[in-house]
Write a structure and sequence with these properties.
The complex is a heterodimer of chains A (307) and B (288).
Chain A (H helix, E strand, L loop, with lengths): L1 H5 L9 H14 L1 H8 L9 H8 L3 E12 L2 E12 L3 E5 L6 H8 L9 E9 L2 E2 L7 H6 L1 E4 L10 H5 L1 H5 L5 H14 L3 H4 L12 H14 L4 E5 L7 H14 L4 E5 L3 H7 L2 E6 L2 E7 H6 L4 H7 L5
Parallel strand pairs in A: 3-8, 3-9, 6-7, 7-8
Antiparallel strand pairs in A: 1-2, 1-4, 4-5, 9-10
Chain B lengths: L6 H39 L5 H5 L15 H32 L6 H13 L2 H16 L4 H25 L3 H9 L4 H12 L1 H16 L3 H4 L19 H10 L3 H33 L3
Helix pairs in contact in B: 1-12, 3-6, 3-9, 3-11, 4-6, 5-6, 6-9, 7-8, 9-12, 11-12
Classes of the chains: A alpha/beta (307), B mainly alpha (288).
C-alpha cells in the first residue's frame, strides 16, 4: 500500500526488536495456546453485539487476535476489534484493564517501552502495522494522538501546531500559517489565541492547552485521532468543549477515545468497547452497550457496581 | 478569636518553629561563609585593582613598573577555557544525550556512566599527568594544547552527567507527543527534548566552566604557565591560576599582593561569564 512507498524504508529505525519478536513468536505460538488462554472470556464470535459493529462495511482499523506483553506480564489477551471509519469508538473499563495499552498499540507508541512484545496483529486500512519494513513514521503521521495530560511543547502556539508539518519538511511560511489557522479553528481555539500565536503554548489554560494539542494532532491531517483520556485533567467546562469538538471532528476523522467516564463514553461515542483484565469483554453500538448490555460484567461496570 | 491548643498541637507548633529556625540559621551560616570569603578577598585584593593590572604583563621585581599586571594570565585562561570548551562541551553533551535518550537498550550505558563517574572523581593532578604523557612528551615541550586537553578531560564527565540528569527531567509526555506526530527519535531530541532543557543544560555547562577556570594542578604539567602573552597553543601557555600559584608561593610581597587581586579577578571572571551565558540562553528561550 501507499504507506510503504511514501518514504524510504531505511527510516524505520524505531524498535526493530519488537518487530522481530512478532515475526518469530507469532507463528510458533499459533492458535492453540491463545485459545486456551482466552477460554474463560467471551470471544469475538460469542459477543453478539460485536456482530453489529462488523456489519459496518468500512473498517479503518482491525485488531486481530492481538496480545501484548510487558516483559512477562500479559497486558492484552487476544483482542479482536474492528474500528469503523469516520465514527467515534470509546474504550471503557476499570483502571489497568489495557484500554490505553490497546490505544497506544494502534500507532505503535508502545515501541518506546522496553520489553514490549506483541502477538497477533493490528491492520490499518488493510495493512499489518507490525509488518517488517513498514514505515512507522508514516503510520504515525496518519494517526494523531491526544494524551491524558495536555502536553504542548515548550514553544510558541504557532510552533506547536506546525511541528508535525515542519518535521515533514514543510518550510513555506504561507502554507504553515494557513494550516496553523485552519487547525486551530478546527480545534475551536482560534478566537482565544489568534492575537498571541507567537507566545508560549504553556501560557494557556489546561482546557486550551488540550485543544492546542488537538490542533497540533489534526494539523498533520491524520485519518485517525487516538485520544487517551483527553478530558481527565480538565474541569467540566473544558471537558464539554473538548466533547463538542469530538462531535464536530467525527466523520472527517475516525476517533478512538479511551475514557474513565461512562457518561462521556455515552455522550460522544457511536461504539463502545468494554475491556476488563486485558480482554475486550463486550463491544457494540454505544446505545446497546449502555441500555441493553449482553453480559452481566458489562452491566455491573456501566451501572457503577464495580470498577 | 483565641483558640485553645491541645498539648499535641502545641508540641507540633513548637516542633515546626524549631525546624524553621534551624533552617534559617544554617542558611545564614552558609551565606556568612560566602560573605566572609568574598569580603576577605575584597579587603586584601581590591587595593591591587588598577587599570595596569589588566593592561600589563608581569614585570620583574626591581625594574620600573614592577610587578606589572596579569593581562597575560587573564587572556591565557580565557583562551584555554575556550579551547577546552570546544572539545569538552560537545563531547560531554553528546555522551549525556546518549545516556539519557539512547542507553536503555544499550549495554554500553552502564560502563559509560561508571567511567564518567570515575573520571569525575579523578584528582585533577592525575588528569594533568595524563595530559603531560599524551601531549607534552610527544611534542617535546610544554604547550597550550596539552593544557586545554587536560581541562577538557575534566569538563567531559561533568557536562555528560549534568546533561543526562537534566534531560531525564524533561517530561516523557513531550517525547511521546513528538513521536506520535511522526518525528524520528533524533528529531525529537533536537527539536523538543534539548530545547526544553536549555536553561538547565546551560547551568551544567557553567558548572563545568567554573570548575576548570579555577584548576591549577592539571595546568602545571601541561601548559606550564608563561610570563609572555601568546595566542600560540604550541608554546607554554599563560594562565591566571598558574600565575596566582607562582606569585603566591614566590618570595616577593608585591607579587603575593597581586596573587590576591588575581583571585578576586578570577572569581569575577567566572561570575560575569555565568551571568552572560544565563542572559544569552534566557533571551533565546523567550520564543518558547
Amino acid at each position: 500500500m501507499t504507506m510503504q512507498n511514501e518514504a524510504p524504508t531505511k527510516k524505520v529505525t524505531v524498535n526493530q526488536s519488537v518487530r522481530r519478536e512478532i515475526h518469530t513468536s507469532a507463528p510458533q505460538t499459533g492458535a492453540a495456546p491463545a485459545t486456551t488462554d482466552r477460554s474463560d472470556a467471551p470471544t469475538f464470535e460469542k459477543t453478539e453485539t460485536h456482530v453489529e459493529v462488523d456489519r459496518e462495511t468500512d473498517h479503518i482499523l482491525t485488531v486481530e487476535d492481538f496480545s501484548l506483553f510487558y516483559t512477562k506480564i500479559k497486558a492484552l489477551h487476544g483482542v479482536n476489534m474492528r474500528i469503523p471509519k469516520g465514527k467515534v469508538t470509546a474504550l471503557v473499563g476499570p483502571s489497568g484493564c489495557g484500554k490505553s495499552t490497546l490505544l497506544r498499540s494502534m500507532n505503535r507508541l508502545n515501541d518506546l517501552i522496553d520489553g514490549v512484545r506483541v502477538e497477533g496483529t493490528i491492520k490499518f486500512m488493510g495493512q499489518d502495522i507490525f509488518a517488517p519494513g513498514l514505515d512507522v513514521i508514516a503510520l504515525r503521521k496518519r494517526m494523531g494522538m491526544v494524551f491524558q495530560k495536555p502536553n504542548p511543547f515548550p514553544m510558541s502556539i504557532f510552533d506547536n501546531v506546525v511541528y508535525g508539518l515542519r518535521i515533514g519538511g514543510e518550510k513555506r511560511k504561507n502554507v504553515l500559517q494557513e494550516i496553523c489557522e485552519r487547525s486551530i479553528k478546527g480545534a475551536a481555539l482560534w478566537e482565544q489565541v489568534k492575537d498571541r500565536l507567537h507566545s508560549s503554548g504553556l501560557g494557556l489554560s489546561g482546557g486550551q492547552q488540550q485543544r492546542l494539542c488537538i490542533a497540533r494532532a489534526i494539523a498533520a491531517d491524520p485519518e485517525v485521532l487516538l485520544m487517551d483520556e483527553p478530558c481527565s485533567a480538565l474541569d467540566p467546562i473544558a471537558t464539554s468543549k473538548v466533547e463538542d469538538l469530538i462531535h464536530t471532528l467525527k466523520g472527517k476523522y475516525t476517533i478512538v477515545i479511551v475514557t474513565h467516564n461512562m457518561q462521556q463514553a455515552a455522550r460522544v461515542s457511536d461504539y463502545t468497547g468494554f475491556m476488563y483484565l486485558g480482554r475486550l469483554i463486550e463491544y457494540g453500538p454505544t446505545a446497546s452497550i449502555f441500555e441493553n448490555p449482553h453480559l452481566k460484567q458489562t452491566e455491573d461496570f456501566i451501572t457503577g457496581r464495580f470498577g | 478569636m483565641e483558640m485553645e491548643l491541645t498539648p499535641h498541637q502545641k508540641y507540633t507548633k513548637i516542633k515546626s518553629g524549631v525546624m524553621f529556625t534551624l533552617c534559617c540559621a544554617f542558611t545564614a551560616v552558609i551565606l556568612a561563609v560566602l560573605g566572609l570569603v568574598i569580603g576577605y578577598l575584597f579587603w586584601i585584593g581590591a587595593s591591587g585593582l588598577s587599570l595596569s593590572f589588566f593592561t600589563e604583563g608581569p614585570i620583574p621585581i626591581g625594574t620600573p613598573g614592577a610587578p606589572g599586571g596579569m593581562k597575560n594570565g587573564i587572556v591565557g585562561t580565557i583562551v584555554l577555557i575556550a579551547l577546552a570548551s570546544t572539545a569538552g562541551i560537545p563531547i560531554g553533551m553528546l555522551a549525556g544525550v546518549f545516556l539519557s535518550e539512547y542507553s536503555t537498550r544499550s549495554r554500553l550505558a552502564g560502563p559509560v556512566r561508571f567511567v564518567s563517574d570515575v573520571l569525575a572523581g579523578v584528582p585533577s593532578i592525575v588528569v594533568g599527568i595524563l595530559g603531560y604523557e599524551l601531549l607534552v612528551v610527544p611534542l617535546g615541550n610544554y604547550n597550550g594544547w596539552a593544557g586545554a586537553v587536560a581541562l577538557a578531560f575534566i569538563m567531559i564527565p561533568i557536562v555528560a552527567r549534568t546533561t543526562e540528569e537534566m534531560l531525564r527531567l524533561v517530561p516523557n509526555s513531550y517525547r511521546e507527543a513528538s513521536i506520535a506526530l511522526g518525528a524520528t527519535k533524533a528529531r525529537t531530541i533536537l527539536r523538543v527534548v534539548v530545547p526544553s532543557a536549555t536553561g538547565s543544560l546551560v547551568t551544567g555547562v557553567m558548572l563545568a566552566i567554573a570548575r576548570v577556570a579555577g584548576e591549577t594542578a592539571p595546568l602545571l604539567f601541561t601548559a606550564l604557565g608563561s610570563r609572555l602573552l601568546t595566542l600560540d597553543p604550541n608554546q607554554p601557555f599563560p594562565s591566571l591560576t598558574v600565575q596566582i600559584f607562582q606569585y603566591a608561593t614566590g618570595p616577593y610581597k608585591e607579587q603575593k599582593d597581586m596573587a590576591w587581586t588575581g583571585i578576586l579577578v578570577l572569581i569575577f571572571l567566572i561570575f560575569i561569564l555565568n551571568l552572560a551565558i544565563r542572559y544569552v540562553s534566557r533571551s533565546k528561550q523567550t520564543g518558547g
